[in-house]
């Protein structure tokens, strides 16, 4: 009876409690409705509050709700009423959960009885079940747990629950699951629970432990089954067992025991999902997880993955979010990890299968998170939302943006996570505002005293936080589409127009505020707010210099103001939008039309164009400008003003500012420098308008340029200017010269034309040295190195020769570096005078000279520059007899090293040094310009150079370079003068209709003809150098010039005469070791390169022809000569017999060297041409043609045996013609009888010598051309037979 009375009293108390909770829920709904429809009133701190909270009555605002919306709202109200709010229930504290997680028995013993009561299921199981840990430590802890549980009465009921047969219980539960599955989920007959005589609560009260387990298990399985059948649609299950406040603890004990003993039947994730559908589900869930601490992450992950798409709008979403919040409050150390899990899982499901975790869950967890940080730090909410919107993951950005947009579509609710977030952000914003800020705008008389009396700036410790808040609101409004309320807009404007201290953070804050004003001009809606903004902008202009000096930063907001003003004047609104986005660090959509109000303010009230131009020139240049300095600098402003031609329009000189800025640069190179130089050059050459063609900027003077390179031209490569400045000035000069050529037509119409820089200036700039320095700084110079290479290849091709780059790799490689490491500071240093004296004593003191030269090889190219004058001026002394070859080779090596840093000066000095002796010719000092006009001056050197291979190598290198330089010079000269000539021709032809405009074509053809003549003359001179002189022919038996014969073998090689000796006592040299042979190889290499670069040169040279004795040399030594096969048919078609003879002789050597199908076809053509000429030539011409060409038939047959028949037929035909002519002449002695008599007298000689017929003709004294031709035919037959026998 006492038990029943107590039970009834508990039920009564529970009903009273439910009534109180229901009333509280209804009041909460009424407040939410009032806040939806009512206006907002600002409180004392500027925070909006519902009108019913301030004591005002909410106005009757009519709302038009559809039937679906009304049904949804009513359903939410019913769900809220049916929700048993877990307020009043005691949750597991973080202290208790941590104790359970770490099994800290000492901390568990310190818990109060109510806290300990929630953890009894797990503690009882630990005390009763056999542990896996058999250590003494756990045995002692277990005793403490038993002692702790001994005084708790509820332990007995839990022990009774653990005493049942769970195996049988699990079998019955599975049978009931099968039964429910067959019945379609309807609540019919139950295996676990028989017919209930009373309500579920009374049955639970009166039942034994086993029946209690069955009742709870049956109810839980029913909820889980319904959850699986609803396909994600949320419902709230009304369960008397889970809603009775009297038995909540006992039911929680049963749930914990069931899940622990039947984990396969009741997965904890499924149980957690089912508990969301019952009243006080979050409380049950926390108790369940607290008793199984290891399942915390698993449960949270399940709650996140099973979220709905629009979770924030539904009751299920709110309950899910509340459950996650309670779990993280119970275990705060994992709150950030769970939030990260929300961010990681949510967007993936959003873009994948459609289910998504609520973004509101992450926000709610952030709102609950309370870090141990000071008030000055950026709050976790600002950091979290900023990371979502400003991170690199576009899916996360879109996912959170949908949360913002969907949340704004609903009416404002105080329980909404979105509005809680907005309220918290607004509280943080108001907290950092200056206390004296208000919406009152002071008038002009108050402006001077506002800084001291009525105005207090933003506190220094709040500046970073304010900048973070500004960027966050920019992201919320620009990316997520947040529509600020009037209150938020007012407070944001107050923050943006605050005046921070002069610190780098303050400069950053002002820049962000200014860009936010440009990005969202709708924040300024009233005239008072517009006046406030104008005053703030005026303050920015006034304080810009102070901020830059006090903050110690190079990039201040003054440059940004100036840049925006220039963009507004030039109507470059897209550039302003790009500037705003780059400053804010986010890509937001800004309509150009929204900037019209700001444009009017800037162009009419603050910055006029003339003010902008005058102010820009006075701005100081950025000291040590480099890419490490971020932000907007004066260089950006000057660049835009140059683009808009504002300086020339208002006649403001900008040349000095640009030169000073170029001199104040360092690495890494700032990206705006090259565009600045390009637009500056354009402003020099292109007038601002056609009406005023003289409105251009002034170029940098030659004296200023010389000052930059003054240290380098001295020799040691040291200058007061940085290498960056020198490279930029070089880029300016080369770009300026190229632009002059490109704009020749437009410059011809100008009265005051810009002038090109003098050749003397260009000669004093060490271009190659600077390029070499830039090559080692490519990473720091950005695109400057490649731009310089492009300009060099166009204007100075002789500085970009392939062999130079290859030699540079050899000179700057590993081995030279290791050799230079041997050069220590203790090594003896040699001066230029010592080198000069050593040269003057040659060849007597060759060892001394060699010692100095070997030392110089250890120096770097830049350190070798001072010795260039002494090295080149004494080269002529090395041509004397007896100079060591090693000295010559070392000089050649040093010259090549110097060629990598100072090629143009070095070439001029070398050409002047190698001139013939003054005793023979009058010497002349040539300049760079002379050598570019006439490159053949290089070959007018001392003839001894032609037989000195090391110096000949230098000469050929210079010749190749000047030939390329001459082409570039003539092209530039043609462009400079072509338009002037056309203009003069047009004036002279006025009134002459129909006259063609031909001067341009004629000039181009003349230029090409001149270049071809230069190249062919150079080739002809070099080929002539290859011919042996009389002494060499006598010394080597006339075979010195035949490279082909020299490589045939010792059996066919004639005996070599004594070679030229050197100072080292060398004896007679063979053919391959002679100086002539080495010079021939060097010349052939150069000709090979020239023929590859321009095949027309090869064609022109061979149409001109050269001595037949050089054919074996050219064919064997020039690999690219095979291209002659392409034009030999054309050469055969020439009317001159000399050219036809040269073509056949050349072809004979090519067939031997290149036995190709193409050679065969050309050989057939040559034989056919010879047969045709036989029928048309006179006797005299026949003799002069066939005598040198018949021996070529031997080479044809040797290379192509199929030509035997054609050659034999041709020889027979030629013999018949000659024999008929011989027969018609009256002779005293028959030449044929004389021939037989000669053979009879000397039979052996006839069989041994294939050239016997020719010798016989001479010995017999026969002068008849036909007879000689007959003997030549016979000799040709014998040669063909002899070569065929040798081949077999």
Keywords:
1288 residues, two-stranded antiparallel ribbon, 2 strands, 0% strand, Integrator complex subunit 2, INTS2, nucleus
Detailed description of the structure:
This protein is an all-alpha fold. It contains 69 helices and two strands. The chain has a two-stranded antiparallel ribbon. Residues 1-85, 351-357, 438-455, 713-717, 990-999, 1038-1071 and 1243-1261 have low confidence and may be disordered. InterPro entries: Int2_metazoa, INTS2.
Describe the SSE topology.
Blueprint: H1 2-37, E1 40-42, E2 48-50, H2 67-82, H3 94-102, H4 105-109, H5 113-117, H6 120-128, H7 136-149, H8 155-161, H9 166-182, H10 200-206, H11 209-229, H12 240-243, H13 248-261, H14 268-275, H15 281-291, H16 296-305, H17 315-330, H18 335-351, H19 359-368, H20 380-390, H21 394-409, H22 417-432, H23 444-447, H24 450-454, H25 463-478, H26 486-496, H27 504-519, H28 527-551, H29 557-569, H30 573-584, H31 596-606, H32 609-618, H33 634-643, H34 646-649, H35 655-663, H36 673-685, H37 702-708, H38 710-714, H39 723-742, H40 744-747, H41 759-763, H42 767-775, H43 778-781, H44 784-795, H45 802-811, H46 814-821, H47 832-840, H48 846-856, H49 868-873, H50 885-899, H51 903-913, H52 928-933, H53 949-988, H54 999-1026, H55 1030-1035, H56 1043-1046, H57 1075-1093, H58 1095-1104, H59 1111-1117, H60 1128-1132, H61 1137-1153, H62 1157-1176, H63 1179-1189, H64 1192-1199, H65 1204-1223, H66 1231-1241, H67 1243-1248, H68 1252-1259, H69 1265-1287
Antiparallel strand pairs: 1-2
Organism: Aldrovandia affinis
Protein name: Integrator complex subunit 2
Family: Belongs to the Integrator subunit 2 family.
